[in-house]
């Protein structure tokens, strides 16, 4: 039987996560220097009426992730050149009165808001994450045995490809297939390029719905998973118990707890922001709509999930691949 597991995306509203776009960071400081504004730090260059300080250069290098012991003369020259160029261009933009254009003005305000919001979120998260207790780590480990003491490694054979526009037709054509060879033949018939190989799925990082489906599998079950950018058919060849060591469990649990703190903090920020907002006109109706994350799971590729198929598995938008614990 073909089981379909849709890896859709739940929308977590993470408010202004600490690092705004580099371009936005650069724009935020644009504008005329206020009269009487003091220059902070040692002045190392002059660009017309503006000064460049040592602190500005250090900040430029820090944003480029250049450690102090790697700051060669060539790297410092390149960074200082960027600062000088930026100040020169800002002067030209102001002379051309671009800062008075409505769109540019709004972008400057937005950039300032992003940086201040990001700084607040970063400080708030740092405070919460620095106070994680041993009891919290132990509680997380006890509450998630499949990630730790009962961890399992699934040896998988899979066929991977980029989802075609006619994914529904492919799902219908393969719904009764019981082997990867049959599916490979269908993909060839439909001229869909694919790759076939083996990999390992780890119960420690697997969505709960997917793990439940794999543990309830039958010998001839073929599974189909999809996301926005990729899709795979796969079969489980074997499953091996692989409990984590105490040190592995401790480090992995810390990462998971930090991730959960970040998600909860993001939701609290969203809730607090909306509670403090008052909307006008038709936006009152718009903002009263149910959020997409509360909607029913997206249907499987064929339009309906087959009977006995796995439930839809959701991941937060933009979530990066979890770091795999050491085997």
Helix/strand layout:
Elements (H helix, E strand, L loop, with lengths): L1 E9 L11 H7 L14 E5 L2 E4 H10 L9 H23 L6 H28 L4 H10 L8 E10 L5 H8 L5 H10 L5 E8 L5 H8 L6 E5 L4 E11 L4 H30 L7 H5 L25 E4 L11
Parallel strand pairs: 1-6, 1-8
Antiparallel strand pairs: 2-3, 4-5, 4-7, 6-7
Helix pairs in contact: 1-4, 2-3, 5-9
Description:
It is a single chain. Strands 5-4-7-6-1-8 form a 6-stranded mixed beta sheet. It has a two-stranded antiparallel ribbon with strand order 2-3. It folds into 3 domains: 2-12 and 147-245 and 298-316, Chitinase A, domain 3; 22-32 and 39-128, no CATH class; 134-138 and 246-290. It has 327 residues and is α/β, with parallel strands linked by helices. The protein has 10 helices and 8 strands. The protein has helices spanning 22-28, 54-63, 73-95, 102-129, 134-143, 167-174, 180-189, 208-215, 246-275, 283-287, and strands spanning 2-10, 43-47, 50-53, 152-161, 195-202, 222-226, 231-241, 313-316. Helices cover 43% and strands 17% of the residues. Strand 6 (222-226) and strand 7 form a beta hairpin.
First-last Cα distance? 31 Å
Main beta-sheet annotation: 6 strands, mixed
Note the overall shape.
extended
CATH topology of the largest domain: Chitinase A, domain 3
Mean of all residue-level pLDDT scores: 81
Low-confidence stretches: 6-38, 293-322
Number of domains: 3
Strand content: 15-25%
Q: What count of helical segments does DSSP give?
A: 10
> Helix and strand string, N-terminal first?
EHEEHHHHEHHEHEEHHE
Structural class: alpha/beta
Supply Rg: 26 Å
| Order of strands across the main sheet | 5-4-7-6-1-8
Just name the CATH architecture of the largest domain.
Answer: Roll
Share in helix: 40-55%
């Amino acid at each position: 039987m073909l089981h379909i597991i849709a890896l859709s995306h739940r929308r977590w509203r993470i408010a202004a996560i600490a690092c705004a776009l580099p371009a936005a960071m650069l724009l935020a400081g644009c504008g005329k220097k206020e009269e009487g504004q003091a220059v902070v730090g040692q002045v190392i260059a002059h660009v017309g009426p503006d000064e460049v300080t040592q602190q500005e250069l250090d900040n430029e290098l820090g944003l480029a992730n250049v450690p102090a012991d790697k700051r060669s003369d060539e790297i410092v020259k390149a960074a200082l050149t960027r600062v000088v160029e930026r100040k020169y261009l800002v002067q030209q933009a102001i002379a051309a009165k671009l800062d008075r254009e409505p769109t540019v003005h709004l972008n400057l305000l937005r950039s300032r808001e992003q940086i201040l919001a990001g700084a607040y979120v970063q400080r708030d998260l740092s405070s919460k994450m620095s106070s994680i207790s041993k009891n919290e780590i132990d509680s997380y480990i006890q509450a998630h045995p499949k990630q730790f003491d009962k961890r399992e490694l699934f040896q998988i054979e899979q066929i991977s490809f980029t989802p075609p526009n006619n994914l529904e037709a492919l799902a219908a054509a393969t719904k009764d297939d019981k082997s990867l060879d049959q599916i490979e033949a269908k993909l060839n018939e439909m001229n869909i390029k694919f790759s076939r190989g083996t990999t390992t799925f780890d119960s420690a990082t697997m969505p709960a719905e997917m793990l439940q489906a794999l543990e309830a599998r039958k010998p001839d079950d073929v599974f189909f998973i999809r996301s926005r950018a990729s899709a795979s058919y796969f079969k489980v060849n074997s499953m091996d118990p692989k409990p984590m060591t105490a040190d592995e469990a401790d480090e992995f649990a810390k990462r998971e707890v930090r991730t959960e703190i970040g998600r909860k903090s993001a939701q609290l920020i969203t809730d607090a922001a909306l509670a403090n907002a008052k909307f006008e006109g038709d936006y009152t109706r718009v903002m009263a709509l149910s959020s997409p994350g509360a909607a029913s799971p997206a249907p499987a590729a064929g339009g309906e999930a087959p009977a006995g198929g796995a439930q839809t598995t959701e991941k937060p938008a933009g979530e990066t691949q979890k770091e795999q614990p050491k085997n």
